[in-house]
Amino acid sequence: MIEGENRKAAFGKAELKQEIAMLLFQQQKLSLLQASQLAGMPRIGFEALLISRNIPPYSYEIEDYELDL
Questions:
Q1: What are residue 39's phi and psi, to 5 degrees?
Q2: Which of 5, 38, 43, 47 is the most exposed place for a label (fewest CB within 10 A)?
Q3: Residues 6+ apart with CB under 8 A from 51
Q4: Which tens digits make up the pLDDT trace of 28-47?
Q5: How much is the pLDDT for 38?
Q6: Would you list the DSSP string of the chain?
Q7: Contact 27/52 with Cβ under 8 angstroms?
Q8: CB–CB of 38/24 below 8 Å?
Q9: Element spanning 1, H or E
């Protein structure tokens, strides 16, 4: 029984780290790379997680668009 509880706690910690990383990323407190490291995930995996939650992994400002013209 204790073994199963430990697995639940470990899974909960991983999810919590991912949620915190996503929140800090959305608030622009962490870069994509920093947030993926905090989440304990490869960058591409963290990007996929963001997309699955409808959080854009990249922001493209109007100034960026105008520079590209």
A1: -75, -15
A2: 5
A3: 57
A4: 999 999 999 999 999 999 99
A5: 98
A6: -HHHHHHHHHHHHHHHHHHHHHHHHHTTSS-HHHHHHHHTS-HHHHHHHHHHTT--SS---HHHHHHH-
A7: no
A8: yes
A9: none
